[in-house]
Structures are given as structure tokens and as C-alpha cells.
Structure to design on (416 residues):
């Protein structure tokens, strides 16, 4: 680390005046002057909801060393209350013990359903804040806590919308505009849009005219920008296994990056059958929690691309573990993300630290003040997110912007 000289000859000298443990502490900057060392304790955990693209749940963890960590949990009405419930399990603990505290919260919250859902959303937000906090205490970027980095920037794919999402030419025009004017070379559209041919939404069955309509959206967009950008399509768990197979087959002639979540997430057997029935790449993972939930998808080759959401399915270190499991099966990772800059940067830090990262989603291109939430500028440029070398996540909340966009009834963080 700059400014900390290391005498490597002492590593093999049994008579050296200090031990490897001393050297590690010195090189990682955990002296009292640089963050407080191992005696830091958590003093408080707070949340604030910001009305962004979704209600962003920001999490702050305070310590007796004056160092504060910021995280974000996937949105959900009960998440702040769940985090309040977990506060007593964290106060007095050492924030550097990220894995232990994560498992501690999972165990303590088992009655609230900590194998998935909003309880894991809440734990994910705390875990991200702990990584930000640990990075600041140790004076290293968050990616260093995950094992170091493979890349200096992470590709970002932009989730797009139009006023008439059912119009193939409108989708193609928006794709062209975003690729040409905003510099993205990876985009995604919703494909579970009305076609005018629906018979019965409840039975999840696609008629042939519906499939033809969705294939036309795929054709129009990929033909317009396919030589300049990768294009993915999201189905939001909408169709039967048979309909998903027919849809996947219908879009095989087109150069599509992936088809996302074509069937509901509960039945792995159906998911596997759909994926293995088609040459169209299938992406899944946003609604499958922790590494335990992703395991069957990966082991049974039920996905072509795994798509966990870091502030939703388990946090940064769990994201790393999912990526490691995916790498055993040579499956790439494209992180789903609808977060503010905090959650997006957490995902990007994970993307920097894993070998099999494809991209991180950006869901707020129409929200003019997204980047204003933090003091740093230029977070996404030319379709990529640069990874800061500052400690932790490398971002600083702009408290004035937080206060300006808070959900009605919320209060801004109290540093006391």
C-alpha cells in the first residue's frame, strides 16, 4: 500500500522483531491512526427510503471509531422494519467479521424466513454496508475484500422502455437512440408486453399470434442495433414451460444476448427443460436466493447465464460465492440490478472481483438525478462503470439529495 514500506526479508527471518500478523496489520493500514483496528464496534444501524426508480432502501452502519458504512437493500415495504429488528444483533459487534455477522443474522432471523424473500433483502443491505465499512477501516477498496480485481471497469447493460412497449418499431428506435447517443453497447427490453392477442393471462399460455408479436420485437431491435450492441429480453417469469420453449425456439434465428426468466422460478425441473431445449441463451437468478438457491440451477445446467441481484439475493460476498459456483460449470454472471448508485457500485465491485462477469444492469437511464445521490461524478461512461480505488465502495452519499428525494414520512440519517 502506498506510504507503508514493507521489509519482505523479515518474512523468512525467525528473529524478526515483529510477526507476520504485525506486518499484515501494518500493510493493511489497520493502525489506530488509519481506522481503529480490530477493536472497532458497531454502535447503530439506520435506514432511509429514497423515492428513486424504485423505493431505494439505504442502510448506514455506524461505529465507535467514527467510520460509517453505506449499503442498499432491494426494495420492499418490510425491509426497514426487518433491519430495525436486526439492529440489536449487530450493535457491539466487530464490523470486520463480515461473514460471521452475515451468518449470525441468517440464523437469528430464521423465524422471519431467512432462506429468501424480504429478510434476505434486508440482510443483503446490511452486508453491503459492512463491506463498505470494512473497506474503510482497512483502507482498501471493497473488491480487495473479495480477493482482488480482474478488471478496472465493469460493463453496464441498460434496461430500456418506450411509451408503447408493444410496438416493435418503437423498441427498435429507442434501442438505436440509446446505443447511438448514450454509448451503451448492451441493452435489455421487457418482452412480457401486451400483444393484443391475449386470451387468458392466468393460464400463462402463449398463442401463436402472441409468440409472433414477441418475435417481431426481437427481430426489429436486433436487426437495428445487433451489430453495435448485445440485446437481451426479459419475460418476468410469465409463461408455461411449453410456451417458453416455443418462444425460445421462435427467437433462435435472431442474435439475442439472452432470454430472461421465461418461467416461474419455483420449479427447477421445468427451468432445466426449457434451457436445454433451445439454442437461445437463458438467464435466471434474480428470484433465487443465496448460493443454496442457485446451486441446482448451476449443477443441473438449467441456465446459460446466472443473474443474481446483489442487494436482493445475499449481498456482495454471497454474490462472489455464487459466481465461484457458476465458474465450476463455466457459466457467466450478468447481475440483475435496479438499485441506486450504492447498490449498483456494490454489484460492480463484485463484477470486478470475479472472472466470469458479463455485465451489471442499470435501470435508471430516464431518472435524471440518479448520479446526484452521491458526490462522485461520471459513474457510468460509454457503457461501463469504473471501479474506484477509494476505500470501501468508493462512494459518498449526498445527504441533501437524500433528503430531497426521501419517501414521504421518512427521516434522513441521524449521525448521532
Amino acid at each position: 500500500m502506498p506510504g507503508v514500506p514493507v521489509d519482505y526479508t523479515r518474512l523468512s527471518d525467525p528473529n524478526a522483531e515483529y510477526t507476520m500478523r504485525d506486518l499484515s496489520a501494518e500493510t493493511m493500514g489497520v493502525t489506530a491512526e488509519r481506522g481503529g483496528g480490530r477493536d472497532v464496534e458497531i454502535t447503530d444501524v439506520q435506514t432511509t427510503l429514497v423515492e428513486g426508480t424504485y423505493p431505494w432502501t439505504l442502510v448506514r452502519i455506524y461505529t465507535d471509531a467514527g467510520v460509517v458504512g453505506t449499503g442498499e437493500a432491494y426494495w420492499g415495504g418490510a425491509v426497514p422494519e426487518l433491519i430495525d429488528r436486526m439492529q440489536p444483533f449487530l450493535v457491539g459487534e466487530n464490523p470486520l467479521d463480515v461473514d460471521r455477522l452475515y451468518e449470525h443474522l441468517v440464523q437469528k432471523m430464521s423465524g422471519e424466513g431467512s432462506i429468501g424473500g424480504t429478510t434476505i433483502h434486508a440482510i443483503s443491505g446490511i452486508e453491503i454496508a459492512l463491506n463498505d465499512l470494512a473497506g474503510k477501516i482497512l483502507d482498501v477498496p471493497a473488491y480487495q475484500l473479495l480477493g482482488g480485481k480482474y478488471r478496472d471497469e465493469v460493463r453496464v447493460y441498460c434496461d430500456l422502455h418506450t411509451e408503447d412497449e408493444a410496438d416493435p418499431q418503437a423498441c427498435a428506435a429507442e434501442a438505436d437512440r440509446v446505443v447511438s447517443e448514450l454509448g451503451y453497447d448492451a441493452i435489455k427490453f421487457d418482452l412480457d408486453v401486451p400483444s393484443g392477442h391475449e386470451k387468458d393471462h392466468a393460464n400463462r399460455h402463449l398463442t401463436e399470434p402472441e409468440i409472433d408479436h414477441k418475435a417481431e420485437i426481437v427481430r426489429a431491435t436486433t436487426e437495428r442495433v445487433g451489430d453495435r450492441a448485445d440485446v437481451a429480453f426479459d419475460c418476468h417469469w410469465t409463461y408455461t414451460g411449453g410456451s417458453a420453449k416455443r418462444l425460445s425456439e421462435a427467437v433462435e434465428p435472431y442474435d439475442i444476448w439472452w432470454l430472461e426468466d421465461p418461467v416461474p422460478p419455483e420449479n427447477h425441473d421445468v427451468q432445466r427443460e426449457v434451457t436445454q431445449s433451445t439454442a437461445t441463451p437463458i438467464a435466471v437468478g434474480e428470484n433465487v436466493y443465496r448460493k443454496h438457491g442457485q446451486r441446482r440451477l448451476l449443477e443441473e445446467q438449467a441456465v446459460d447465464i446466472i443473474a443474481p441481484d446483489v442487494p436482493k439475493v445475499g449481498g456482495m460476498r454471497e454474490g462472489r460465492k455464487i459466481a465461484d459456483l457458476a465458474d465450476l460449470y463455466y457459466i457467466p454472471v450478468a447481475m440483475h440490478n435496479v438499485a441506486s448508485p450504492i447498490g449498483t457500485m456494490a454489484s460492480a465491485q463484485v463484477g470486478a472481483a470475479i472472472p466470469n462477469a458479463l455485465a451489471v444492469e442499470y435501470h435508471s437511464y430516464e431518472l435524471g438525478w440518479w448520479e446526484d445521490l452521491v458526490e462522485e461524478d461520471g459513474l457510468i461512461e460509454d457503457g461501463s462503470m469504473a471501479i474506484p480505488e477509494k476505500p470501501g465502495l468508493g462512494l459518498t452519499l449526498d445527504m441533501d439529495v437524500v433528503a430531497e428525494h426521501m419517501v414521504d414520512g421518512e427521516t434522513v440519517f441521524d449521525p448521532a
About this structure: Residues 118-138 form the longest helix (21 residues).
